[in-house]
Request: fold
Amino acid sequence: MPVWYHETYTEGIDTSARFPRDRYILLRERLDDLLGTGLIQILSPEPVDKDTLLIAHEQDYVERFLSSSLNPKEIRRIGLEPWTDAFVPRTMRIIGGAVEALAHVTRFGGVAANLAGGTHHSHRSFGSGYCVFNDLAICALLARDKHAYERIAVLDLDVHQGDGTATILEGEEGIITISVHGEKNFPFRKAKSDHDFPLPNGTGDEGYLLAVKESLAIIEDFSPEILLFQAGVDALEYDALGNLDVSQDGMRIRNGMVFSSLDRRIPCVLFMGGGYSDPIEHTVDAFHDLFMAAAESNALYGPH
Reply:
């Protein structure tokens, strides 16, 4: 399974930022155990071009971000402060990794992943919640308008609702958005996905996995030609921002449910999503489980 990664995913965030930047490099190091098996390969993304961003975002917002001209309020809304000189190129490489993963599965099938991203809080004209540009929305629109997919499913299992994805893709023909999330978590003003599954604090494994099962039934009925999977692990019981209290075993079951629903006909792009456990090792463990499940699924159902 190809996995796109660049050192700027970590290094592009300042060491004093509240965001747990080390999760990227720690997961990359943990994936070394899979490199020798042939289950994954690590690829370096190129920065996305500006025209691709304009598929989902307003030109004024894109140009002001690229020229480092956002105002202080806009910067605070995105977070990740203080921004480094590498923050803009970091953002462009993260979106580039998602776009390259989409192109790969379009050509070869199977599963491909970006070791970052899932930036579902970004809206057309502003960023929010650690998200500058919306890689899910960009890839969904590219899948339809460039790669000629007619039915695209966006499955978001991050504990935070994919509000930006929902607003950007609202009413877009051939694309459905599904979000399983905490009802009392960020964003506190929810958008409207095509299918929302808001869950109360303390839901735990049984209720969470039931919502995942229902979301997968919707996807099966829709019969998508491609799945875009935002696979945040912040529903984990150890997560500082989660509150859903899902066990690590529950997260593993979730991963298995999603990947076992795929077959050779349905390529999948995996977006990393959120994870904020303290200590961060719990998040890294959960992401390692996720990428292992994705790689094993790709070995079974991917290109041969």
